[in-house]
Amino acid sequence: MKATLVACALSLFCTLVGGASTFSNPLRTRNGSDPFLVYVDGYYYLMTTTWRDLQIIRAKTLEGLKTGESKTIYTMANPKPDGNDVWAPELHKINGTWHVYYSQDRFSWVLTGGPTPWGEYTNNQRVHEEWGIDGTVAEIPGWGHYYVFSCERDELQSLCIATMNNATSVGPISLLSQPLEPWERVEIPVNEGPAPLHHGNKTWIAYSASFCKTPDYQIASLLWDGESDPLEQSSWKKSDGPLFSSANGNYGTAHNFFFTSPDGTEIWNIYHATQNSSGSCGSDRQTFAQKVNWSADGSPDLGIPVKAGEILQAPSGE
């Protein structure tokens, strides 16, 4: 088995004894920030922050994403000299059409595509008019689609939520969460990078807490009570502390998303991390993926960040 693992580490598409597909992290070694991943019709589609454009990478395996086919769907016409213009892209299918939601100049934007993630994207427009970044789409069971994003309230970078009128516009915006706990306020108070998670009969919104340029940038969550109006802050319970924090040489392990394995039986966490022990908000952040486990009470167990280079079994159904 040891010899097999060594050979696997040297192979682009490695397999363990028995033929099970495997992969190693990181999936992206540069420009791996703010990762989003979805599996559709035989392909993984990955988006990360490149700062000046929006790119989609696709491959049939996680390991294959390292050298996967790449497609640029949007480029800034007049980027700023520092290049920090476009970030946190996400792919979401609403009413049969794929859309890419992203942040540009600290506002929320959306591009409209077609019936497949690999199509053309046009009709670039603002989702709403106020300051807002890191937008995501959360489908709350029995209630519909909601747009969740990082907003500014009481001079704090918080989380807000709004009902979606359609794929490109939202209704009134409500406050969802503010960084009031000590572990949300390291260097700068921050709530950002929301990511919906559904399992069993429960719905969470994971989010990133504290400043990204610290090793304490980490993942926490809000749990919906399952009954009350999702627009009401009282309908959500914040976790007692972070669920996922720096470990194993990976720091600032946050701004994540959750994706489902090809056969639909597993939920996986995709996130970014840096090897800079001081933390980082820049292009040196890398993309990692690992399986989500579940506690006896049905809550997510994100575990601890895996070591770079460790060989892992790929999502079920590859």
TrEMBL record:
InterPro entries named in the record: Glyco_hydro_43, Glyco_hydro_beta-prop_sf
GO molecular function: hydrolase activity, hydrolyzing O-glycosyl compounds
Keywords: Glycosidase, Hydrolase, Signal
Membrane-spanning segments: none
Signal peptide start-end: 1-19
CDD domains referenced in this protein's UniProt entry, alphabetically: GH43_LbAraf43-like (cd18820)
GO biological process, one term: carbohydrate metabolic process
Family named by the database record: Belongs to the glycosyl hydrolase 43 family.
The protein, known as: Glycosyl hydrolase
Organism: Immersiella caudata
Lineage: Eukaryota, Fungi, Dikarya, Ascomycota, Pezizomycotina
